Structure formats: C-alpha cells, structure tokens
Amino acid sequence: MPKPQPIVVHYHRANLPLLGLAFLAMAGIFIVQAWKQTEMLYAIPFWIMAALFIVMSAPFIVREMCRPAQNEILIVNERGICYRHPSANVGFIAWRDIAGIDVYHNGKHWLLRLYLRDNAPYLAKLNPINRLFARFYQLQFNTPFCVFPFRHHIDVNVHELLTEIEREYGSYYHPTPPIQAA
Asked: What is the C-alpha separation between 10 and 7, in angstroms, rounded?
C-alpha cells in the first residue's frame, strides 16, 4: 500500500498589517497636530487615547508584519490532524483519538468538525480563554474542535477536504457515528 501524501492547507493573511500601519500613521498625525495646538485643551484626551492606541497595537502589528505571508494552518499526515489556529492549537490530534470527522453547515458557512474519543487531554492544552471558546463550540457544534475556513482566509472546499482525508487516511482511524445533540 503506498504511503499517503500529507495534506497541507495554507491560510493567506489579510492586509491587516497595512491597515494597522495606516491607523498608526493617522494616530501619529493626530498626536502631532494636537501637540502643536496646545491651546485646545479638549484635544488632550484624544491624543492621550491615540498614544495608548499606538502603544497597545504596535506589538500586534509588528508580529503580523514578521509572520510569513503563507502559513500552514491545517496539516493532515500519518500522525493525525493539526489545526494551527492560535485559538485552537493543541498540536497534533492523533488518529487513535479521532472518533469521527464530518462537514457541517451553520446556516451561512461550511466547517469541518472533529469528534474526539476524549476531549479532556486536548482541552487541557488550551489557555483558559480559548477553553471558554471550546466550550461554546461544544454547545453550538457538538464538538470543541472545528476547522473554520471562512474565518482564517483558507481557500479550501471542506467537502473536497473531507473526501481527500477519507481517501488518504481513512484506514488510519475507525470512525464511529458522531453523537447527535438531543
């Protein structure tokens, strides 16, 4: 039997760093103008807010500018499935822990749901805020682990992705029917 090919899905970042730089430039101009016109006391709170905005957003903008333009966000190989979004990055989910995979339509978008035999070890890897999101996903989608292509600029059809996963890696896991909500 031939070795299955890894499935790698890239996401393309939006023009967020450019927009951030534009906002920083506008805030800087606003601060300089407010500083020049010091007789306008009502402008002081605005330039203080603009300075806080610059200080708080600069690390995010620098991080986004240093990140590669294409990033691997979903990797499927012999080890399992790795969804590398910051809010759901638990590393590789081993095939032995995957009970099922299906496609779900939430009324507006399609997403891929991963059903695990035991969620606890993977939920423990998330920080507390992301754990809250995972609990929300559990209530909304019956599983805390979902791949959201529409949120992360992923150019992939989830139906084709599921077909490819089942074709290449169907023998690696033995799916059980997902538990349906009552």
From this structure: 10
Strands ordered across the beta sheet of 92-94: 7-12, 70-76, 80-83, 92-94
How wide is the angle at C-alpha 178 spanned by C-alphas 72 and 158, nearest 5°?
A: 35
- State mean pLDDT over 5-12: 79
Average pLDDT value for residue range 148-167 = 77
Token readout for 58 is 């600069």
The interaxial angle of helices 44-66 and 16-36, nearest 10 deg, is 150
Q: Which amino acid is at 141?
A: F
Q: Counting beta carbons within 10 angstroms of the beta carbon of residue 147, is it exposed (0 to 12), middle (13 to 18) or buried (19 or more)?
A: buried
How far apart, in whole angstroms, are the C-alpha atoms of residue 23 and residue 56? 12
Instruction: Give the residue-averaged pLDDT of 81-87.
Output: 79
Determine how many CB atoms are found less than 10 A away from the CB of residue 64: 16
pLDDT in tens, 66-80: 665 557 778 899 889
